[in-house]
Amino acid sequence: MTAKESGAEDQWPPAGSGDEWLLFYLRGLTFAQVARLCRVNAEMVRHSIRQREVLDPSIFGRRLVLHDRPRYRPPRHGRAVAWERRYTAVFRLVAEQGRLPKQLGSPHERGLRRWLYNQRLKRAAGELDPRQEELLDRLGEWRGQ
């Protein structure tokens, strides 16, 4: 049974508090988003907030500060971990089969070959970390022609 079928959606009256609308607005929601969440007319929300902006012009500026704050981006540890995983997979393949990945191998092996090709490109462009190059040298002749 959904919320509409049970009537749970109509259980609560619309949120008519201008303070609540203002809080949503300051957090970066649009008038339409506030109206949808509070189940009221978007024009009522807009009018109420515009009236408050007349009384306190700093409201608009505070909203922009909150709304335009850059998104948090966690440190990028993922690339180093992904590189280590790929290197380990290639190293295992070389250890087990005594050769580098082939183009005509399994899809996994083709992916490893493509990764190794990209490492060659990075080395040629001078973008490969010396530690990574040292590890790749342990594979044998990975540099190609």
If you average the pLDDT, what whole number results? 84
For the sheet with most strands, the description reads:
none
Number of domain units: 2
Structural class: mainly alpha
Q: What portion of the residues fall into strands of 2 or more residues?
A: under 5%
End-to-end CA span: 66 Å
Helix content: 55-70%
What is the subunit organization of this protein?
Answer: single chain
- Inertia-based shape: elongated
The secondary-structure element order is HHHHHHHH
Low-confidence stretches: none
What radius of gyration results from the CA coordinates? 29 Å
List the total number of helices: 8
Number of strands: 0
Can you offer a commentary on this structure?
This protein is mainly α and 145 residues long. It has two domains: 13-67; 78-137, no CATH class. The protein is 63% helix and 0% strand. It contains eight helices and no strands. It has helices at residues 3-6, 18-26, 31-38, 42-55, 58-67, 78-97, 107-124, 130-137. Helix 3 crosses helix 4.
Q: What's the short story on this structure?
A:
The protein is mainly alpha-helical and about 140 residues long.
Question: Could you list some keywords that capture this structure?
Answer:
about 140 residues, mainly alpha, 2 domains, 8 helices, elongated
Topology:
Blueprint: H1 3-6, H2 18-26, H3 31-38, H4 42-55, H5 58-67, H6 78-97, H7 107-124, H8 130-137
